[in-house]
């Protein structure tokens, strides 16, 4: 079994966030037309991280824009997963507070692993019924907003998720940070400048008004590969 970090005390998974960003802190252009700009090494790193986790979680809009199927990356990473005692493919978790997502998205046509939808009581009966027909489970995880601490505890209890990789976008990441759920951050800094005051960042959402409320992380490691800088941060006083 894997010796990678896992949360044991509070019943939730160990949460990693992985993102690539420009040198000015953007994860996409202002119109979101450009959202994938890292190198092949950055993509390899993404699959390396997926290979250490039980599940990958992503926002519905990010799934639609990126056309990702949240796969395991192929045979090399399948072998890595099996060696660590993990299932061949990671569980796929999609977040949509209103239940709005294109059911023709590629992810729903790939039957590699279960798909779980986290949503709220705001979802209409029609959308709920449609989603239930194409995924393994739809979880109502809050009234108006998703209760992420409760949702993650449910993922661990029901689906045995001990390590969870969050791949954004910025709104989902922000909610995870706000709920104090992020244990580890992987950021690839790319040599580009996008600009744009409304271009998405790693953590969008409401934000914090004062410095003392900021979530505290410490630099664990960094390395240069080609023109990119790969960094890893751990939460301070992490369990």
Q: What does this entry look like structurally?
A:
With 239 residues, this protein is of the alpha/beta class. The protein has a single domain (14-235), classed as Dihydrofolate Reductase, subunit A (3-Layer(aba) Sandwich). It is built from six helices and nine strands, in the order βαβααββαβαβαβββ. The chain has helices at 40-50, 60-66, 75-83, 125-132, 148-159, 170-178, and strands at residues 14-22, 55-59, 91-95, 115-119, 137-140, 163-166, 184-190, 217-225, 228-235. A nine-stranded mixed sheet has the order 5-4-3-2-6-1-7-9-8. The protein is globular and about 45 Å long. The model has no long low-confidence stretch (mean pLDDT 94).
Features:
nine-stranded mixed beta sheet; 6 helices; alpha/beta; 239 residues
What structural class do the secondary elements suggest? alpha/beta
Beta-strand share of residues: 15-25%
Q: Compute the number of structural domains.
A: 1
Average pLDDT figure: 94
Largest sheet: 9 strands, mixed
Q: How helix-rich are the residues, as a percent range?
A: 10-25%
Give the termini separation: 20 Å
Low-confidence stretches: none
Number of strands: 9
Q: What CATH architecture label applies?
A: 3-Layer(aba) Sandwich
What's the CATH class label?
A: Alpha Beta
What's the layout of helices and strands?
Layout: E1 14-22, H1 40-50, E2 55-59, H2 60-66, H3 75-83, E3 91-95, E4 115-119, H4 125-132, E5 137-140, H5 148-159, E6 163-166, H6 170-178, E7 184-190, E8 217-225, E9 228-235
Parallel strand pairs: 1-6, 1-7, 2-3, 2-6, 3-4, 4-5
Antiparallel strand pairs: 7-9, 8-9
